[in-house]
Amino acid sequence: MSKRIVILGAGESGTGAAILARKMGFDVFVSDNASIQPRYKEMLVSYNIPFEEGKHTERLILNADEVIKSPGISEKAPIIVKLRNKGIRIISEIEFAARFTAAKKICITGSNGKTTTTTLIHHMLRKAGLNAGLAGNVGKSFALQVATENYDYYVIELSSFQLDGMYDFKADIAILLNITADHLDRYDYSLEKYAESKFRITQNLEEDNFFIFCRDDEITIRHLEKIVMKARQLGFTRKNEPADGAWVDENDTMRIRFDDVDFSMSLAELALKGKHNTYNSMAAGITGNVLKIKKEIIRESLMDFRGVEHRLEPVMKVHGIQFINDSKATNVNSAWYALESMHTPVIWIAGGIDKGNDYSELLDLVKEKVRAIVCLGVDNKKLHEAFEGVVETMVDCSSMKDAVHSAYYLAKDGDTVLLSPACASFDLFKNYEDRGRQFKECVREL
Core-most of 115, 285, 288, 390, by most CB within 10 Å? Predict the structure, then answer.
C-alpha cells in the first residue's frame, strides 16, 4: 500500500505539494478549512487529486502517514493539535520537495530584505546563464517546480514558518540577512524562539556548504556564538574589514574578499539604494562569488536589477508629490528602513494588524522626517499612543481611497507620500499585495 500524504491548505504551496506527491505515486488527500481558489481547484482536478474545502474531516486526515502543512496554519489549530497528539509527522512543502531534487539550493531568510535578495540572486544566476528556479515565499511553489520543471539551481526565500516544518532539508548556501522582532505572536512573544526558528536555515550544513550572514546584526552574532557551525562562514558588514566576506571601505566602495576572490564596486553604482539594500547587495555579491560567476556579470546584475513590487516601489509623481509603495513593510524594522532612506519630508501611511509592535525605535526618524501620519487600520490606538504629539497631524482612515486622498491633501510640492504600514494587512485587505495594488490604483486616480 502506498504511503498516505495529507496536505492541509490548498494555496500555492499546498497545491504544489499535492501535485508532486501525486507524481511520486503517493495516496494524496488535500483539505482546506477555507474555500479553495478556482485556479488551485482546477490544478487539483487536472491531476485527479481528491480534496475538500470549508472543513477538515478528521477521519480523512488523522489516518495520514505524513502531513504537509501550509505555513499559514497555526500550531494551535485544533487539527494540528490532534495530529501532534497522535504522533503524525508534520512537515513543510519545502522539506517534502527537497527529497525529490538534486539541484543546488541557495536559501535566504531574515526578518527583512528576503524577497529583494532572493530575486536579486535569481536575476544574477539567470544573467550568468545558469538554469535556476525562484521558489519558496516568492514565485511558483518549490514543490510544483520540482514536479514539473528541471532546474540545476533553486533560489529559495524561506519564512520562519516554513523553516519550522523543516528537519532533514539542507541548503548548499544559507543566507541569514537579519533578525528583528517580527511574527512574535507566533512565537509566544519570545525573540529567542523566533531567532532559533530563523537559525534552522543552518541545520544540516556541512564543511562544503556556506553560511552568509550580517556581522552587524547583534542577535545573529549572539546566536552564532552558541552553535557549532561546520559550514564556511562569510559575513558582511558596513563597518571594519573582516578576514573573510564583504564590507564597505572609507571610499564608499563595496569590497568582497575571500580565498582568491577580490571584488569591488562603488555603492553609487548599485541599483538598490539605502543602507539596508547595501546589505542585500553584499549578500548577493558574496553568493555570486561563491558560485564563481564572472565579476562582470555580478557587477552588471547589481547595477541593473529592477527591484521588487511593493518594496520601496516608486509609483508616480502627482503635482510634485512622490508616491512610494512599500506595502511589503509588514513590521517596524521594515518601516524603519523605508523612513531611513527618505530624503524629503514624508506623509506616512501606516497601520493594520499589529504583531506586537514596539514603535519606539521609529521615534527619532519620525521626528526628523515625518510631517503627518495617516493611520490606515481598523484599530489605530497604538499608533496614536506612540506618535501623538511627535507629529503635528494624525488622521484615521478605514479605506485606501480615503488614506491616499488624505495624504495627498496633507502633502506639499516636494514631499513624499510613503505607504510603509509596519503592520500586517488582514484587517482591511486580502494581503500586502492587495494593499499595495489598491494604493497604486488610488494614486493613479488622483
Answer: 285
Summarised one tens digit per residue, pLDDT across range 113-147 is: 899 999 999 999 999 999 999 999 888 899 999 99
Task: Kindly give the pairing relationship between strand 245-248 and strand 253-258.
Answer: antiparallel
For the chain, give every residue range classified as CATH 3.90.190.20: 313-444
User: Which ranges of 266-331 does DSSP label H, i.e. alpha helix?
Assistant: 275-290, 295-304
Torsion of CA 138, 223, 282, 95, to 10 degrees: -30
Reported confidence tier of residue 275, pLDDT bands at 50, 70, 90: confident
Instruction: Give the pLDDT confidence of 36-52 residue by residue, as tens digits.
Output: 999 999 999 999 999 99
- Can you give the length of the chain in residues? 446
- Is residue 354 within a helix (H) or strand (E), and if so which, with residue range? none
CATH 3.40.50.720 fits 4-91, yes or no: yes
Strand partners, 256: 246, 263
What is the CATH code of the structural domain delimited by 95-304? 3.40.1190.10
> Which residue blocks in 64-164 are alpha helix, DSSP H?
78-85, 93-98, 114-127, 142-148, 160-164
Which residues in the chain are classed under CATH 3.40.1190.10? 95-304
Q: Long-range contacts for 252-257 (Cβ within 8 Å, ≥24 apart)?
A: 254/278, 254/281, 254/282, 254/285, 256/282, 256/285, 256/286, 256/289
Give domain 313-444's CATH architecture: Alpha-Beta Complex (3.90)
The pLDDT of 166-187, averaged and rounded, is: 83
Q: Between the CA of residue 432 and those of 116, 158, 310, 373, what are the distances in Å? A: 15, 17, 8, 19
Asked if pLDDT for residue 13 goes beyond 90, the answer is: yes
- pTM here is 0.81
